[in-house]
Structures are given as C-alpha cells and as structure tokens.
Amino acid sequence: MEQSYSTSFTVNQPADEVFQAINNVRSWWSHDIEGDTAQPGAIFRYRFKDIHRCTMRITEFLPNEKVVWHVMDNFFSFTEDKSEWKDTTIVFEISRKDGQTEVRFTHVGLVSEFECYTACQQGWNQYINGSLQQLIATGQGQPNVGEAITESEQALG
Which domain of life is it from (predicted)? Predict the structure, then answer.
C-alpha cells in the first residue's frame, strides 16, 4: 500500500485562526506565490528559484475544517521525473483534540519511492511543523523569501 507523507501538530489557537493561517500561504511557505490562496477553486503558483515550480488548485475549502490543494503541474530541476508532484493532493485537516486545535497535513501521493521524497519531507517538516505552526502560535511564520532554508534547498541552490 502506498504511504503518503503526513504530519500533525496541535496549537492553543481556535480553528478559525488556524484556518486563516493555512490560507495565508505567503506567510508560512513562500513569498514567491502568485494568485489567490484563500478561495475555493482558486489557482496559485509556487516557485523556488529554478529548482521547483508548481501550480495548485484549491479543490476543497471548508472553513475551520479542511483545505485541499490539487497539484495541477509541477517541475523539479533535481529529479529524473520532473513532474513527481503532478496529480498529488495536499490536505490540511483541522479538528479539536483535548482542548487544543490539531492540524493534520497530508501530501497524498508523495511517497518514499519518489526521488524528491527526502528533500520534500524535509521541506514540509520545515514549512508545516516549523513555519506554519509558528505563524499560528505567534503570528509570525518563517516563509521562504528567496533563499534556501532547509538543508535540501541549500544543497540544491
């Protein structure tokens, strides 16, 4: 069975604040995003130098509960299959757990067989468990502003 990448964390903030932070993608993932990241059906583009580009469509948008992005197109400069993320799905699920708000992030289709898996796992750990969690908890994330943040980005950049 295919195992997709998944991680979760809990915060003290209510679900509506968590939902707003998730959709404020420029404040936790990257400043280099074009398009609307907070409307159902919207399409946005992410870019990191000439190393990674992708196009996302917001396919589910349930306030304070769930956000789903479908990867419409993808390019990696560092993999043999340049489009490894294409047709994968990125899911943010928000729920209450023991008096806190839990965020469960799953990149459905990002599997260990992918050449990008180690770099992508490291990246998502940084941007989800680090930057997004910080944005929710403190109001200040650590998005990519054009410079490499993770070891993988540094090695590729």
Answer: Bacteria
Distance spanning both ends of the chain, measured CA to CA: 34
Determine the Cα–Cα distance for residues 151 and 157; give it in Å rounded to an integer: 10
CA distances from 19 to 61, 82, 121 (A): 10, 31, 22
Minimal CA–CA distance to 14: which of 119, 112, 122, 97? 97
Question: In 129-152, which positions are buried (b, 16+ CB within 10 angstroms) versus exposed (e)?
Answer: ebbbbbbbeeeebbbbeeeebbeb
Question: Identity (one letter) of the amino acid at 68?
Answer: V
Neighbours of 77 (CB within 10 A): 12
Say which DSSP state 10 is in.
E
The DSSP secondary-structure symbol of 36 reads: -
Global model pTM greater than 0.90: yes
pLDDT of residue 145: 79
Tens of pLDDT, residues 119-150: 999 999 999 999 999 999 999 999 987 666 66
Q: Which two tokens stand for residue 23?
A: 């959709």
Are 76 and 116 in contact by the 8 Å Cβ rule? The answer is yes
Residue 3 pLDDT grade (very low, low, confident, very high; cuts 50, 70, 90): confident
